[in-house]
Specification:
Length: 316
């Protein structure tokens, strides 16, 4: 079974990826948070550092590009290809208001004629450079029925993979996924499919597989893998419960790495708070401590709370 780690901006950068890969692993592909090419700078120094091979050793990483301009995509892809990458991913799923207002991410989906021309350009380039391009998409912007036309458009191009998150833009990440549309893709897509969305447990995965009448493989997870870092192990039958010792190693590795490159305390703690908004589901009965943790402004205060939580659970 192949499991892909979805990109989460601000969370799954190279520091987290390296720590996760060392401590947990069992991820077949990591997707980097998107690169948004600017006219005079297709790949910024910060983006270049994020995807630099020396910062992602032992990781099968796929850089992701977010744009509605084919020339911008191609210029960014050229730089990424020169770094040794043989696959990039096009983001057609981001629901952010600022992104969609610029016609990018999910905001590109209603513009089917422009999208077709865009894909003509980038896949013509890819064929010349022996570059694979996968696409991560939502069902549509306004209406899930937009997906029928999108599948027809995608079928006209040699996608390395079509990763489908079965929601529309206004759904964001709330509520149930629209499973009937992924069923349509299973019957009608001519490109390899990857399912993405609402996989937080083995039961979620089994229920989805049962509903589609197949064993879903590959699958992509993002929020589920952050919320329970042992989820990939569980899905692959390697572990049966969350390992608090491993979680503490992950926490400490990421925390100390951020301390080396970010200051003052509060900026590191902003990064850690994001992780704890996901991890809190693992710690029933600790809501009061976690609320205090999310308000901590100094390392000492934060550490006193965190290690009390983690040590309490490791002793259970």
């Amino acid at each position: 079974m192949k499991i892909y780690f979805a990109p989460l901006e601000g969370i799954t950068g190279h520091i987290f990826r390296n720590a996760y890969n060392e401590i947990y692993g069992h991820i077949d592909k990591y997707f980097a948070p998107f690169i948004s090419p600017a006219e005079k700078c297709p790949v910024t120094p910060r983006d270049r550092k994020e995807i630099a091979p020396e910062n992602n050793k032992g990781i099968n990483l796929v850089p992701q590009i977010l744009t509605c301009r084919s020339d911008g995509f191609i210029e960014a892809a050229k730089e990424i290809r020169a770094m040794g990458y043989k696959e990039v991913n096009l983001n057609l799923g981001c629901p952010s208001g600022t992104v969609c207002a610029k016609g990018k991410g999910a905001g590109f989906l209603p513009e089917t004629l422009l999208l077709q021309r865009f894909l003509d350009d980038i896949y013509s380039y890819a064929a010349q450079e022996d570059l694979k391009i996968s696409i991560k998409t939502r069902l549509g912007f306004f209406d899930p029925d937009e997906f029928y036309d999108l599948v027809d458009i995608f079928n006209g191009f040699p996608l390395s993979e079509l990763i489908v998150h079965p929601r529309i833009r206004s759904d964001f990440y709330i509520g149930e996924v629209r499973k009937e549309y992924f069923s349509y893709a299973l019957k009608n897509s001519q490109n390899p499919l990857v399912y993405n969305g609402n996989i937080f447990s083995c039961k979620d995965y089994d229920d989805l597989s049962d509903s589609f009448g197949i064993t879903l493989d590959p699958v992509m997870a993002g929020r589920g893998l952050i919320s329970d870092p042992s989820l990939a192990d569980k899905l692959k039958g390697i572990a049966s419960e969350t390992d608090i010792v491993k979680l503490r190693r992950l926490h400490d590795t990421v925390y100390h790495a951020y301390q080396e490159i970010i200051s003052p305390d509060i900026h590191v703690l902003y990064k850690m708070r994001e992780l704890w908004t996901y991890w809190r589901i693992l710690f029933d009965g600790k809501d009061r401590d976690i609320k205090r943790l999310l308000k901590a402004k100094k390392y000492r205060e934060y550490e006193d709370i965190v290690y009390r939580i983690l040590e309490g659970f490791s002793e259970q």
